[in-house]
Write a structure and sequence with these properties.
Length: about 210
Amino acid sequence: MLLIEVHVARGTLTEQERQSLGRRLVDAMMTEEEGHAVEVIDAQRAVTQVLVHEPAAWVLGQRPAADPADPPRYLVRITVPASWRKEVSTHAVPAVTDALAETERAAGRDPERVREAPHAVILVDGVAEGSVGLFGRVMGSMDLADMVTRPYRETAGPHPASTADGRWIDPVCGMTVERSPGAITLEHGGVLYGFCHGMCRRSFADEHGIALS
């Protein structure tokens, strides 16, 4: 569940460039390289929205005062459930920076400036538990996790518990999990499952009536 808001000075981007940036940001945040099953990624895409804003006024605090359109600055705000914020930030900051750099490259400007100068500020905000509404009802973090992972869990046929090389496959979201001493695991039906996140473990336990200590 994501809301991505991009603030950029008026006239910096054309309508086509704004649309391209929006699609680029969704692709950057929902990449399959992160390991989730395609069904989970598609479900996340379905509830992800990007808004590109052009503020009427934009004042930079630097001295001397500069025109924010030269070179153009970006302020990006990403809103997610609060419990997801730290994990999302780790992926979002470099991914969004790459997307902005590609936008600058496509516009014929220096793409590296968003990494070499504070020309792109990325803020990841977390909304409080129970502050998201979908389908006409309030949804918590577990409700949202269940919603985006259900398409994977409901696909035909049993999902393998591990890969050919012995790594676990999270039965909730399809992510590949390395076997390590600190891995999140849970045994069910004589099979030890690995999970990418405690939320997936809890979802699996709830679905199978397993009491967690």
